[in-house]
Design goal:
This protein is mainly α and 148 residues long. The protein has one domain: GTP cyclohydrolase II (Rossmann fold, 3-Layer(aba) Sandwich), CATH 3.40.50. The protein is built from eight helices and two strands, in the order αααααβαβαα. The chain has a two-stranded parallel sheet with strand order 1-2. Helix 6 links the parallel strand 1 and strand 2. It is globular and about 45 Å long.
């Protein structure tokens, strides 16, 4: 995602989250990083993600851009990731995420989320509006990130 030019800060946040996740796993001494293909742009695909970026550059936020394109706000399916965790025998996790839907999906599979570890992207001029939309419209747990 780092090569996608846009001014809304989304690419920066994705790269930052990946880096923080890998660092957290290394620091903990063990862990699992699951990357699901086909989930680009909250499940709308890469081409539509680029169209949404254009709308964001024109003034839409990350949620209203998807809606303006007639697309779901978040079409991701976490079932495959949960299935992988169960196949690996994972029954308890420290989940590195800001997304409450990911927590709910894991808990719905009877995997105990012992701790939700926030990923802090850090608000910048470029991504502050993007992070605010994710917090206010998608329920992401980013309030501390935005305030600082």
């Amino acid at each position: 995602m780092s090569g996608t030019p846009n001014t809304n800060g989304a690419a920066h946040e994705c790269v930052s989250n990946s880096d923080q996740s890998i660092s957290g796993i290394v620091q903990a001494g063990s862990g699992i990083l699951i990357y699901l293909r086909g989930q680009e742009g909250r499940g709308i695909g890469l081409a539509n993600k680029i169209r949404a970026y254009a709308l964001q550059d024109a003034g839409h936020d990350t949620v209203s851009a998807n809606s303006a394109l007639g697309l779901p706000v978040d079409a991701r399916n976490y079932g495959p990731a949960v299935a992988m965790l169960l196949e690996l025998g994972v029954r308890r996790v420290r989940l590195l995420t800001n997304n409450p839907k990911k927590v709910s999906a894991v808990e719905a599979a009877a995997i105990v989320v012992e701790e939700r570890v926030p990923l802090v992207a850090g608000a910048t001029v470029e991504n502050k509006r993007y992070l605010q939309a994710k917090t206010e419209k998608l329920g992401h747990l980013l309030a501390q990130t935005i305030e600082h």
